Structure formats: C-alpha cells, structure tokens
Amino acid sequence: MLGKLTWDAIPWSQPIPLIAGAVVMLVLLGVLAWVVVKGYVPYLWREWITSVDHKRIGVMYTLLGLVMLLRGFIDAIMMRLQQALAFQSGGYLPPEHYNQIFSAHGTIMIFFGAMPFVIGLMNFVVPLQLGVRDVAFPTLNATSFWLTATGALLVNISLVVGEFARTGWLPFPPLSETGYSPGVGVDYYVWALQISGVGTLMSGINLVTTILKMRAPGMSYLRMPMFCWTALSANMLIVAAFPILTATLAMLALDRYLGFHFFTNEAGGNMMMFMNLIWAWGHPEVYILVLPAFGVFSEVISTFSRKPLFGYRSMVAATLFICIVSFTVWLHHFFTMGAGGDVNATFGIATSIIAVGTGVKIYNWIFTMYGGRIQYATPMLWSVGFIVTFVIGGMTGVLLAVPPADFMLHNSLFLVAHFHNVIIGAVLFAAFAGLTFWFPKAFGFRLHEGWGKASFWCAFIGFYVTFMPLYIVGLEGMTRRLQRYDVPEWRPWVLLAGVGIIILFAGAVCQVVQLVVSIRDRDKLRDEMGDPWNGRSLEWATASPPPAFNFAVLPNVQDEQPYWTIKQRAIETQQLPAEPDYQPIEMPRNSPTGFITAFFSTLTGFALIWHIWWLVVVGLVAAYAIFVWFAWRDVEDYVIPAEDVAKIDRERRHARQAWLDANARVGEPA
Q: What is the distance between the alpha carbons of residues 1 and 20, in angstroms, rounded to a whole number?
C-alpha cells in the first residue's frame, strides 16, 4: 500500500535532522495558526496563491529563493563546523549525514536558492522595463512558480522522511546507480529536479516570448534596458539547456527504476555519456545565473553613477557572445578523464575566449563609473564588491581552463573556491543588489541603508575570509568533500575558513534585522514618487508599488533611456505631460491552476520516490486533468473601468507634480 515507506524512513537515531525538522514544523504550524487567527487566509488565497500578476509571482519567487538560501547556508555552516572539528577525529557528523549535507547544500543553493531568486527578479522587473502589463502567459507563469516550490518542498521533506542523495550536487554515476545508492536519496534528487525543471523551462518560454513579442510601442531591440537583454539571453539558454537536464535525469531514473543501462558499468552503459550530458546543461546553467546578474549590475551602476551605460551596443554584443559560446565549454569539467589532448585544447581555448565577453562588460562598468557622480548606496556597494570579487574568480577560472593546471587542481578545494568566487561574487551579490534596488518598487518603501551597508561589509569580508584559505589548501592538495583529514598544514586554513563563515552569518543576521527595521519604519522610508533612486528605465515611471495594470497608458519609447527623457523634459518645463485619454483595461483573472497542479505534482513526486504506484497514477491523472480544465476553461478577463484607471494614475501624477513644485529650483532629483 505504501511501497517502500515505513517508520524506519524517519531517522530516529539521528538527533540533528529530527530536531531541525521539528523546529521547522513548529515554525510552519505557528505561521499557519497566526494566518488563520488573523483571518488572512482569504486575502492570501485571492491576492497571492492564485495570483497570475507577474509582480506577485516575482515576489514569491524571490521569497522562495531567500528562504532556500538560508536553508542552504545552514548546511554550509554545518560543513565548515564539521571540518573545523574533524582534524584527526570524526567530527560531530556521521559520514553518511555529512555526505547528505554537502549534496543538499549545492542542490538547494543552485536550483532552489539562486535560480528562484534570479527568475523572481526577471519576473518582477522585465515586464515593467518593457512597458507592458504582464507576461505573455500569466497562468503558465503561476504554474512555473508552484512547480519550482514543489521541488523545494520535496528536497526539504527528505530531511526527515528518508534521506537525501550522497552523491554531490550532481548525481554522477555509478555512485548514483542503484547498486551504490540503493536508498531513496537519489530518487528525491531526481524527482525534485524533474518537477522544478519543468517549471523553470515553462518560465523560460514565457519570458522569451514576453521579451520578443510584447514590448511597448517604439521599444526596438536596441532600446531595451540591459537587464532585458541579459534576461532574454538567460531564458534562451533555459529553453535550450533544460531539456538536456530533463532527458539526463529521465535516463538515470530508467536505470534506477526499470534496470536500464544508460550509465551503468555493465550491459553497454557508459557513465561518460552522463558526464557529457550533465555538463552540456551544467555550464550554460552557470550563465543562466550569471547573465541576469550582469543585467542587475548594469542597471545599478548606471543609475548610481548618474550616467548612461557606457558602450551599450558592445554590452549587448558581449551578452549574446557569452550566450552562444557557453555551449562550447562544457568539457573543461572533465579534462582529467581521457578525452585526449586535441579535445582538451579545443575546450580550454573556448573557455579562455568566453572570458573576453565578460572582460568587455567589466571595462564598460568601470567606464560607466569613470567621470560619474557616484552615490555609494547599498546596491552600488554590492556592485563594486562584485567587480573586485568577480575579477579574481574569473582569473582563477581562466587558470583552470589550462588543461595541465586543471590536472593538478581538479577536484581540489581550489576548484570549490573558484566556483564560490563566481557564484557568490556575481549571482548572490547581484541578488542582494537587485533586492535592495527594486524593493521600494515592489513594496512602496526602501530598505534601511545602515543595516544594508553593514550586511554588505560582513558578506564582503566574510567571503574573503572563508574562501581565500580554500584556494591555499587546494594548492596544498586538499580535496573537496572530505569528512575528516589528518594533514596538520591544512588545519589553520580550515579554521580560518570557519571564522569566515561566522562573519558571513553576521551578514545574514544584518539582512534579517534590515528587513525587520525597514518594515517597522516603513512610513519614514516611504517611496512617495515611485522613483527613489533617480532611475532611468520605465519601471520607475510607475507608482510604488505598481498597480495591477502597471501602466495606465502604454508608454511611447523614443530612445534608450525612455523614463530619463520624460523626467528631464518635465524638469525643464516644470510640468508633467498632458493627462492621457484613459481607457478600460483588460487583465487576466486569478487562477488556482498552478497551486492545484503543484499539489498533485507533490503527491506524484513523493509517490515515485517511495514506489507508491497507485498514488502515482492518481497524482498524474489529477494534475493533468486539473491543469487542462483550468487552463482551457472559457473564462473572460476582467475589465478595470476607465474611471478606476484614471483615479489610480492621477494619484501617481499628483505625487510627481508635488515633487516638481517642491524642487522647482533644482535641476534634477537629489
């Protein structure tokens, strides 16, 4: 009846996961009880759970990313603590638990931390920057989010029901085959990523369609903001690369469930096919994360330098160059596995060449700042910290692109330090820069600057104290994934990395405090005009937060900085443009399609993991039926009357006119 699921699936003998699981359950039950007691359930269902508004979905994606980054960071703290205690001893974690932790850390941070965060920023910002009212497929967008949340839920269920994979963040065979991993850990990995991967693919299709087909009048490709270009490139990579991941995990599932031999060591299987397939997806995945980060920094650096982005067209060319070349470098992940000198040299050269596109961007950002009147607000600090950190990470990447050097450093902590140098220095720094930058647009008030800067400095210093020692011990020969070690020369550097993780933890605490203080003081931090940073692109032309329809009248774009042009004209004439002719606006109705589909997908995934076949059938049939019924039912959009549109937009215009009157003698915003 319940397949492989028994009471033994709960790790009764391991207090750490039991206590952690109990704490999480108590927190969730407490939050749920608070929501019910306060009467917020109808509001949450109507305004968030069933919402198809791209802004709400973007906020939920970002919130999911933040929660899962915290979850993955806890795993990182446990790993650093284990290694600090594991010199010539077993530490405090059993080997099998430690293996699950480092596997969960990488999986959560990449798939359920960084990816939702980046997709959330794109979901929220891109339609606003394009001057449109929503994405191309709103209901599909909601379904994408809830399927991603399903994958995150399955990974967290593995904490207390069963186990997680012990293979690392990528399930390399033969370790991931049934003979070496007979438990359900790899199955949790496979189905969590399969379900969330479908959600990511749908999100990629949605955003590509939105950018290519739904721009404001007059917004040609070369008038799009740089963030839209990097979002377009990243989502084209999603559409091209994620089917590879889906097919690869499907073949691994067939090996495990039906005794196929795609990646086994016998019966004609070839585990090197898995390596090629997983990295043919895996290296474009790096740029799926990094390219939107580059877009965030482009917007932030231009805004806080008080200058247009230097070399806009070269930045577009560099973005597309990286997008294309990212598919030609995957083999550098296994230089040591016998592909041959000619093949290694080809991929080593391609890996070095791709750095040229990034180099173009670095110089463009520096030249944007050069001669500008730089304001070192919190988003700008994250951006400057990124430039310094990412240059170091990029140079170590070019070093690893040289096959002889890679032979020496492969699978060492030098590689771990390089990877974190790139992902933390680019993706997470961009995530926090973007969060601070667009937070007032989403919620109507700014985040506290003092706590934001404290968080940045703790994160910046903590990063270097944590990961620079790993470069050194990597050069000294320390390999990754060690549960214990006996080499005395490594110990001081491992302990120093442990100090670094404490500083990083202080940065995380500062961010939590920043959010709490900002909510408490939100009236003082209120963004009345919708343009707290003196921005240049169209999202700043809307109120904060924007209305459901974004724009009362779609803007007519005439140059690369449409809002800046409108704003400067208003400042020069000391009056706003004439009030437009307001018309009724059709908007899509909310739909529970995504949430209900994800609910049954969760049942299906859990049933597949534990071989509960009757529940698999029920879940699949119900998920498909609900999706088709809700997605194809004949429901008309709702109409916002012209008088309501006018009322909402006049409030925005009134705030801006008041600002103009108060600053009549000032040439531009402070």
A: 29
d(Cα 83, Cα 73) in Å, to the nearest integer? 15
H/E run at residue 26: helix 15-38
Q: Where are the alpha helices (DSSP H) in 214-260?
A: 226-258
The residues facing 479 across adjacent strands are: 412
Q: Is the peptide bond before 545 cis (omega within 30 degrees of 0)?
A: yes
Relative orientation angle of helices 95-107 and 54-85, to the nearest 10 degrees = 150
Angle CA(198)–CA(200)–CA(206) in degrees, nearest 5?
105
CB distance 230 to 241 below 8 Å: no
Token pair recorded at residue 633: 């039912």
Question: Shortest CA distance to 51 belongs to which of 180, 153, 141, 151?
Answer: 141
Cα Rg of the chain, angstroms: 25
Backbone angles phi, psi at 157, to 5 degrees: -60, -35
Cα–Cα distance for residue pair 411/481, rounded to 1 Å:
9
CA distance 429 to 366: 17
- Work out the average pLDDT over 337-364: 91
Which among 90, 68, 92, 89 has a CA at the least distance from the CA of 78? Answer: 92
Specify the pLDDT at position 668: 47
CA distances from 260 to 18, 214, 227, 275 (A): 35, 45, 44, 17
Distance between CA atoms of 647 and 665, rounded to whole angstroms? Answer: 29
Question: Which tens digit of pLDDT belongs to each residue from 363-394?
Answer: 999 999 998 999 999 999 999 999 999 999 99
Q: Which residue has the tokens 């597949």?
A: 608
Question: Please, what is the average pLDDT of the chain?
Answer: 92
pLDDT at 618: 93
Going 210 to 212 to 218 to 223, the CA torsion angle's sign is positive
Closest C-alpha to 369, from 356, 355, 380 = 380
**Three-state secondary structure string covering 97-116:** HHHHHHHHHHHHHHHHHHHH
What sign has the CA pseudo-torsion 220, 144, 28, 429?
Answer: negative
Predicted structure pTM score: 0.95
Two tokens at 589? 């109705």
